[in-house]
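It is worth pausing here to work through a concrete case rather than discussing structure prediction in the abstract. The textbook approach is simple: state the sequence, then state the predicted structure, then interpret. We follow exactly that order.
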Amino acid sequence: MTDKEFREILQELAALAEAGGDGSMYGDLDGALSDINSILASPDLTQETGRIYTLILTTGNLQELSMECGWTGPFDQLATRLENALHRPPNLAVKPSLGEGKVTHGL
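Step two, the predicted structure:
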């Protein structure tokens, strides 16, 4: 995945978080936005894969925030896109005929 693609998904994730509520009980909106913005400040997001991965951990702040504020479905979709991209070596392509998020291995 390219830097641009990572940025687009992270910006969508930030917009979801901002619109979704403050998450006063478990999720922390300010912390989530700080984490996302800190990563977005990097000049090359392809070098930030470890930090990106921590954003979408199943017990992480963003998942807790999404559950508390009612945007679990959209969060899961964006997290899946990020996870697929993180696990896809740069020389592999996503074939549209297989559907979004399907990784092909040139088979």
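Step three, interpretation. The two ends are 19 Å apart (CA to CA). Helices lie at 3-20, 29-40, 49-55, 61-69, 72-86.
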